[in-house]
Automatic annotation (TrEMBL):
Pfam families named among the record's database cross-references: DUF2218
InterPro entries referenced in this protein's UniProt entry, alphabetically: UCP028291
Name of the protein this chain belongs to: 2,4-dihydroxyhept-2-ene-1,7-dioic acid aldolase
Organism: Azospirillum palustre
Amino acid sequence: MAVSTARIATPNGRRYMTQLCKHWAHKFEVVYDETQGLVPFAADRRCRMAADDAGLTLTIEIEDAGQMERMQEVVIDHLKRFAFREDLGEVAWTPVG
């Protein structure tokens, strides 16, 4: 499984995480609380989120590493839609492992 993570510095991390989870809960079996969320996009791909007072950490886990960049784009595109009032800057993804 390929894993990639990104940290977004924002005081609104919890709010954005909740919005993303609620948004995707219409299509997927999303699980979340005030500090973490899990979006199982499919059996072979998911996004974990962790939020705190300083920001939001996104972690994508995917079987097909060739699809990682596309999943990163999808997640960030949705995040930026909810964070349109704030400049989140360039999001840097880091491979894990």
